[in-house]
Amino acid sequence: MTNHRTDKFIPALGSDLLTPLYDPLLWLMRETRFKSDLVEQAQISNGSRVLDVGCGTGTLAIMIKQLHPEAEVVGIDADVKILGIARAKAAKTGVDIMLDQGMADQLPYANSSFDRVVSSLFLHHLTTDNKQRTLREVFRVLRSGGRFDVVDFGLPRTFYSRLVARLTANGEELAANVQGLLPGMFREVGFGNVAETKQFMSVAGALSFYQGQKPSAPANQPG
Questions:
Q1: How many Å apart are CA 124 and CA 207, to the nearest integer?
Q2: Which residues fall within 8 angstroms of residue 1, CB to CB, at 6 or more apart?
Q3: How many angstroms separate the first and last alpha carbons of the chain?
Q4: What's the pTM value of the predicted model, to 2 decimals?
């Protein structure tokens, strides 16, 4: 949950001092519900290799491993401090996941190395340029036919969510989300079957679920 740039990032909630408040805030947003829905949407198979981009305190990566113990689960975030929280949570729950430090727009993984990439409440921290770079990297590391499944702030469709968006979407990062631009950005980097599958109302506003699929390569070409 950090703002990944090519040379720096912004900590979760904007300050290292606020990082301990991150999980309590997500609890108020009913994260177990919307992250469970995201895992269900991702349709992870036994033996799949899954990457959680902007994994933050590790809740989603841990949940995926608990629900799909045969999957290989990797989380990546730029914030060393928040990864420390994630590692402690993983150790406490006894799950075996890999948690890497790195930038979302410079993923340290080989081409076509993941079956699924997931992301929860991360893309709205990125500028438009960083969103585009990150989406290109996600597309690169996905295998042929692999999918990117996301839950993040989206186009508000209720009075309450429009009010919240008006109060909070002052910067470039969040504005792109609440203007409904993410599906178009997915398509621009090459994703097919792009869809907003549903919305979830949280105290912080409307969360949209998105998916995009990397087209399958011809049979005589590598994924």
A1: 11
A2: 12, 22, 54, 56, 57, 77, 79, 82, 121, 122, 125
A3: 29
A4: 0.85
Under DSSP, is residue 218 helix (H, G, I), strand (E, B) or coil?
coil
Contact 105, 189 (CB under 8 A): no
Domains (ranges, CATH) in the chain? 3-213 (3.40.50.150)
* Phi, psi (rounded to 5 degrees) for 117: -120, 135
What is the pLDDT at residue 4? 39
What is the per-residue pLDDT across 88-136, written as a single tens digit (0 to 9) for each? 999 999 999 999 999 999 999 999 999 999 999 999 989 999 999 999 9
Q: DSSP code of 126?
A: S
Contact between 147 and 119 (Cβ < 8 Å):
no
Cα–Cα distance, 76 to 10 (Å, whole number): 15
Strands (E), the chain: 3-4, 9-10, 49-53, 72-77, 98-101, 114-120, 142-153, 192-202, 205-213
The predicted structure's pLDDT at residue 33: 87
